[in-house]
Amino acid sequence: MTDPSRSPSAGLRIASIAGVPVYLGWSWFALAAVITVVVGSGAGAVGYVIGLVYAVVLLLAVLAHEGAHALMARRLGLVVHRVVADFLGGHTAFDSRALTPGRAAAVAAAGPLTNLLLALVGWLGAQAVQGTMAGLVLGGIGWVNLLLALFNLLPALPLDGGQILESLVWGVTGRRASGLLVAGWAGRVLAVLIVLWAVGLPLVQGRTPDLIRIVWAGFIASVIWRGAGQAIASSQARAALEGRTIDQVARPVTVIPGSLPVGSLGPTPGIPLVREGGRYLLLGSPGEGVTVPPDTPVSALGTALPEGAVVESAPGDELVPALTTMQSSRSSVVVLTDGGQPWAIAIADDLNTLLGS
Ligand SMILES: [Zn+2]
Questions:
Q1: DSSP summary character for residue 242
Q2: Ligand 1 centroid, distance to 118 Cα (angstroms)
Q3: Do 82 and 13 meet the contact criterion of CB atoms below 8 Å apart?
Q4: Separation of CA 149 and ligand 1 centre (Å)
Q5: Ligand 1 is a single-atom ion; what residues have CB below 5 A from it?
Q6: pLDDT of the residue at 190
Q7: What pairing do the DSSP bridges indicate for beta strands 91-94 and 251-257?
């Protein structure tokens, strides 16, 4: 839920919550079809309608859940890119650079707590109009929200409960890498338990395992296993970065205005970095045998860096912000600023050499 570079191409934009775009993932349509068929089969047309109502109730519960994550992140001053509702609940993509253990836990808890609240409302409503069609629907809303909340609160990444566990360990140890490792391994254990529940439990009880249950459990377990593996990999990457600072790769720059004529360009103490408007350009050589008129502006010789290839990272800061900016801007060079003023650039090859050593 934190990767801003991932494009939401696999979804349909359906709404916007507080300016944050909300997408319906394509996998939701598959889920809606499965729920409609499973609930509807054997019960005729009315069954299919009830199945579809369940699918829509689940969608609304997921949207409330993800909307709560997004609103909490917004409230805490984090930049929210989008909300996607899909198969297992969905995900909220936000900029995690300003994250602290407390903020991460608050954002993670907001989703399941909203579902618990809706479950209570549904249950109270169902009690009030017991025995009617409205009572059935309200009861359904209560159950769907209760199950969604409890499932997401399991303390294992990539679920919300896993994020809360990660934050706790992060807060206690002061190392996010430790939190990711613990909650990531909890995710792998959960994935194994889900498979054991679907296959092992019936066998122990002397029953034949149910095929549909195995397919569902296998799918959910594989999604959780993959998310948990990403958390563990990210923990190892963070551990490799610990104790290293941006100074180890920063190459100092001298900022040159883009309008400066080439003829006035003398030797500079650092790498010449051309600033023109809001853009930064790196100077290239004009090429063998090419003569450039001395009144040509230096910007004509520069290669512009992508717009997002700038990060606030002062001397002594850790490497992570420069690394994530490199990934999100897909640029092999990023400009480092200190109080908004460019002081150096960081180059992907230098980072790879440092981290590989
Ligand atoms: Zn969630």
A1: T
A2: 15
A3: no
A4: 9
A5: 111, 160
A6: 95
A7: unpaired
Residue 288 has what pLDDT?
Answer: 65
CB count within 10 Å of CB 129 equals 14
Query: Contact 48/107 with Cβ under 8 angstroms?
Result: no
Could you give the CA distance from residue 5 to residue 134 in angstroms, rounded to a whole number? 43
Strand partners, 22: 15, 83
**Would you state the structure tokens that stand for residue 179, as one six-digit string?**
């939190």
Distance 221 CA to ligand 1 centre (A): 17
In 3D space, the residue among 60, 71, 67, 83 whose CA is nearest the CA of residue 13 turns out to be 83
Q: Which of 89, 194, 187 is nearest to 145 (CA)?
A: 89
Ligand 1 mean position, distance from CA 69 (Å): 7
Q: What is the pLDDT of residue 58?
A: 83
H or E segment to which residue 168 belongs: helix 160-173
pLDDT of residue 285: 67
Residue by residue, DSSP assigns 112-152 as HHHHHHHHHHHHHHHHHTTTSHHHHHHHHHHHHHHHHHHHH
Q: How far is the centre of ligand 1, averaged over its atoms, from the C-alpha of 164 (Å)? A: 11
Query: Could you tell me which of 341, 334, 340 has the C-alpha nearest to residue 305?
Result: 334
| Residue numbers of the chain with a pLDDT score lower than 50 | 1-8
* 143 Cα to the center of ligand 1, angstroms: 17
pLDDT at 347 (0 to 100): 93
- The type of residue at 122 is G
Cβ neighbors of 273 (< 8 A, separation 6 or more) are: 253, 254, 255, 256, 280, 281, 282, 335, 342, 345
Domains in the chain (CATH in brackets) are 11-241 (no CATH), 246-356 (3.10.580)
Half-sphere exposure at residue 337, Cβ-oriented, CA atoms within 13 angstroms: 12
